[in-house]
Automatic annotation (TrEMBL):
A Pfam short name: BPD_transp_1
InterPro entries: MetI-like (IPR000515), MetI-like_sf (IPR035906)
Family: Belongs to the binding-protein-dependent transport system permease family.
Membrane topology: Multi-pass membrane protein
Protein name: Sugar ABC transporter permease
Location of the protein in the cell: Cell membrane
Occurrences of domain ABC transmembrane type-1 (ranges): 87-292
Key words of the record: Cell membrane, Membrane, Transmembrane, Transmembrane helix, Transport
Transmembrane residue ranges: 21-48, 83-110, 122-142, 154-175, 198-222, 276-295
Record's keyword annotation contains Cell membrane: yes
Gene3D superfamilies (UniProt xref): MetI-like
Length: 310
C-alpha cells in the first residue's frame, strides 16, 4: 500500500507537470525578449551604417530608413591596401598575443595553484599586488623603449597585454577547483614529470577555463589601439585596425571642422560622418561576433564550473 507521503509526492509531481509547460512558455518568451534586446543595438548600428547621410540628417535615426547607401563603407575602403594590411596586422597580433597570454597565464596559474610549490603564496600575492598598484604608463614606456628596445615592432603591441593578473587569479582558482590533487599524485606515481602532467592531464580537463581566458585575451588584443599610439611613431608602419579606423575618423573630423578655412566647405559637408562612425563599429566588432560562437560552449562552462562544485 502506498503511504500518504508517497501519494502526496505523486500529487505534487502531477500538479508540477501541469503547471510547468505554461511557465516554460513564459520563461522562453522573457529570455527571447532579453536576448533580442542584447542583439538589437548591434543590428541598429548596422542599419545606420547603411543609411544615406542626408537621409539620416533629415529624418534622424529610424529602424527602416527611406534610402540606403554604402557611402560610409566606400569612404573607409578608400584606404584600400592599407586597410587590408592593417586588418592582417590586427589578426596576427591577436593570434600571437592570445597564444602567448595562454602560455604565460596557464603556467603561472598552475604553479601557484599547487600546494607543493613552496613560494606559491609569494607569487600569488605578487600577481594580486599588480592589480592594486600598477607600475604606470611612464615606467612601462621606458621599459619597452629603453630597456627592451621594442618600439616600432609588433612585439610592442603584444607584450604589454600578455600577462594579466586577473587572468592568473581566475585560472588559479579554476585549477584548484577542477584539478584534484589525487590526479596529479596518480600521474607522478605513473612516472610522469611536471611538464608531462601539465600538458597531458591538466590542460585537457581545463579547456573551459582556458577558453574563457583566451576569449578575454582575444578581445583585449583586438580592441587595443593605445599601444600603437604609444609605440608606433614611423609613418611607414601599418598600424592595427582599431588605430587606423581612429585615424580615419580624426582626419574626417579635421576636414569638416576646417572646411571653411580650407575652401572646401561643399566637399566636406557631403562627407558621411555619423554613418562612418557606425560603419567603423561594424568593421571593428563583426569579426569578434563571428568568432564568439566557437568559444561559447567552453566560455559558459568556464563561468559556471565553480558554481556546481560541492
Amino acid at each position: 500500500m502506498i503511504s500518504n507521503s508517497a501519494q502526496l509526492d505523486v500529487k505534487k509531481q502531477r500538479d508540477f507537470n501541469e503547471i510547468t509547460p505554461g511557465w516554460n512558455v513564459l520563461f522562453n518568451i522573457l529570455i527571447g525578449l532579453f536576448s533580442f534586446s542584447c542583439v538589437f543595438p548591434f543590428l541598429f548600428v548596422i542599419i545606420i551604417s547603411l543609411t544615406d547621410e542626408q537621409t539620416l540628417a533629415l529624418e534622424g535615426f529610424s529602424l527602416w530608413p527611406s534610402k540606403f547607401s554604402t557611402e560610409a563603407y566606400s569612404y573607409i575602403f578608400q584606404t584600400g591596401h592599407e586597410l587590408l594590411v592593417s586588418f592582417g596586422v590586427t589578426l596576427l597580433v591577436t593570434i600571437m598575443g592570445t597564444l602567448i597570454t595562454l602560455i604565460l597565464v596557464t603556467t603561472y596559474a598552475y604553479a601557484v595553484s599547487r600546494k607543493s610549490f613552496e613560494f606559491r603564496g609569494f607569487f600569488s600575492f605578487l600577481a594580486f599586488f599588480t592589480m592594486l598598484f600598477s607600475g604606470g604608463m611612464v615606467p612601462g614606456y621606458i621599459v619597452m623603449t629603453q630597456f627592451l628596445h621594442l618600439q616600432n615592432t609588433i612585439w610592442s603591441l603584444i607584450f604589454p597585454l600578455s600577462l594579466s593578473a586577473f587572468s592568473i587569479i581566475v585560472m588559479r582558482t579554476f585549477f584548484q577547483t577542477t584539478v584534484p590533487d589525487e590526479i596529479i599524485e596518480s600521474a607522478k606515481i605513473d612516472g610522469a614529470g611536471e611538464l608531462k602532467t601539465f600538458i597531458r592531464i591538466v590542460l585537457p580537463v581545463s579547456l573551459p577555463g582556458i577558453a574563457t581566458i583566451g576569449l578575454f585575451a582575444c578581445l583585449a588584443y583586438w580592441n587595443d589601439w593605445f599601444n600603437a599610439l604609444l609605440y608606433y611613431n614611423k609613418p611607414e608602419l601599418t598600424p592595427p585596425l582599431q588605430f587606423l579606423l581612429m585615424k580615419i575618423e580624426k582626419n574626417m573630423d579635421f576636414l569638416i571642422k576646417n572646411a571653411q578655412n580650407l575652401g572646401t566647405f561643399n566637399a566636406a559637408a557631403g562627407l558621411p560622418t555619423e554613418t562612418v562612425r557606425m560603419a567603423m563599429v561594424v568593421l571593428a566588432t563583426l569579426p569578434i561576433v563571428l568568432a564568439y560562437p566557437f568559444f561559447q560552449r567552453y566560455f559558459v562552462q568556464g563561468l559556471t564550473v565553480g558554481s556546481v562544485k560541492g
